[in-house]
Amino acid sequence: MTALSELDETPTPQDAAWWRQAVVYQVYPRSFADSNGDGIGDLPGITGKVPYLRELGVDAVWLSPFYPSALADGGYDVDDYRDVDPRIGTLEQFDELRTALHRAGIRLIVDIVPNHTSNRHVWFREALASPPGSRARERYIFRRGRGEHGELPPSDWTSTFGGPAWEPVGDGEWYLHLFAPEQPDLNWADDEVHQEFLTTLKFWADRGVDGFRIDVAHALAKDLTEPLASQADLKADIWGGAHPLEDRDEVHDIYREWRQLFNQYDPPRTAVAEAWVPAHRRSRYASPDGLGQAFNFDLLEATWDATTFAAIIDKNLELARESGASSTWVLSNHDVVRHATRYALPEGTDLDAWLTSDGTDPLPDEDRGRRRARAATLLTLALPGSAYLYQGEELGLPEVADLPDDVLQDPTFLRSGGVQKGRDGCRVPLPWTTHGPTLGFGDQLAHLPVPTDFGRFAVEREEADDASTLSFYRQALAERRRLQSGETLDWLTPTHPTVVAFRRPGGWTSVTNFGSSPVPMPAGSLIMSSAPAEGREIPAETTVWILQDPEHAV
Ligand code: NOJ
User: Fold this and answer.
1) Rg (CA), the chain
2) What is the pLDDT of residue 85?
3) Which residues line ligand 1 (CB under 6 A)?
4) Is 233 a catalytic residue?
5) What is the band of 235 on the pLDDT scale with cuts at 50, 70, 90?
6) Residue 351: phi, psi to the nearest 5?
7) Count of other CB atoms within 10 angstroms of residue 382
8) Rounded to an integer, what distance in angstroms lies between the CA atom of residue 372 and that of residue 342?
9) pLDDT band with cut points at 50, 70 and 90 for residue 230
């Protein structure tokens, strides 16, 4: 792992493997810190918080999209890939942020959205202004509709956010959008699309960006030969390269092309795939001649259970060995219910239904959620590989499930006719201070309301409290930095079925008690614990790190 020394802004011999065991902190720019009081977080706001990020002890920051966008999907609808949204800043302010991060020893990863542009992108506007069969339409996926006048969609496919995946343009043709209608899918069979993204990647790499997070990496290559499959066929889990829209083998030709570009830099630029594919297909995205790393979302979906966690860890370490990449561990991000809340809900809770109940049915057990969340975090931070943290989890922020309908922005809410609430509850601005209309996020305004009880989680308050979640994260990241060395893990045979235990190179051990009663603490000296531990017992739902005598069983 990279030492927290100042990264020079001028090229020096650098550690090309910095990413392998990095702690990467995801910033959702609109909700992080607002420097100009317009209610939208911005780049100078993030720059102002670099000391906070340094103190937290992260190795890299991943910025979710900050590009010009109408925000039909929180910025994942990009108007221009090589600029900054004026509400968020300027390219000069981007450079200032990068410099500040690099000076603090923190790398910078940006989000690339190659499956679709926004409907305001110059290419799409040109496509709409051009006739069927024109060159401008070839960059997207246009098809003539069925029916005598093209009045029916080319197929019955549905989009991820609900409703049909085809939108008519009024001349008998329809375009494909796997997400919102404002996100037309690009045609990756077109060479100009390839060239355009190489230019974009080069633009940011030349600007000193250290790596890329690739949105919807599994869907770029598509087989649209007629007749188009039906939605029922798509649902039938046809993986292994046979699905017409997802995880096709040809998608890796694109990433091989990108890898050649990334490797022209010193150190090579990194990339991590957001690829929702079965675990056994993930290694292809993570291969060294491809993107190099892929998100493992298995823990996002896992129940709080020792056997489940152990199996997921084991499987993903095996996959990492297979690909040569390091694994990735994710407990929260901007698309899912925050993990402090997931773990506060009874097992098997349908999260969509729970959100629809405004978070009242069932009521979360906040103490339990926080306890389990800390234990899970400490466990994942002990694992070999990179840990991806999502802004606010270091404060123990819960999901805000009772946002009023009239402030919701997620297309999931709008496209489901209000049936599904969507993802806004994990995108609420961060509380920095205990008082003030937006709790220090900005001035009077916040694009999503900050609940007043978020003052309990304010950075200002947690910094002053040794027992806070923030203090816990700082300690955990500092200890990880000190302890983390090789990339191996030796499982220890637990004496109790609720325990997951492993040893890392250097003789430190992580032991998690998933059970609801204490278990004996193994011999050794306690490095840290996710909950106050007294005597020789690991409390319920707690992870401890210990320097252990190798002879002792757990
Ligand atoms: C995945 C992103 O994480 C999500 O926020 C977005 O809605 C979709 N991709 C579409 O770009």
Assistant:
1) 23
2) 98
3) 73-74, 76, 113, 179, 215-216, 274, 334-335
4) no
5) confident
6) -65, -35
7) 27
8) 10
9) very high
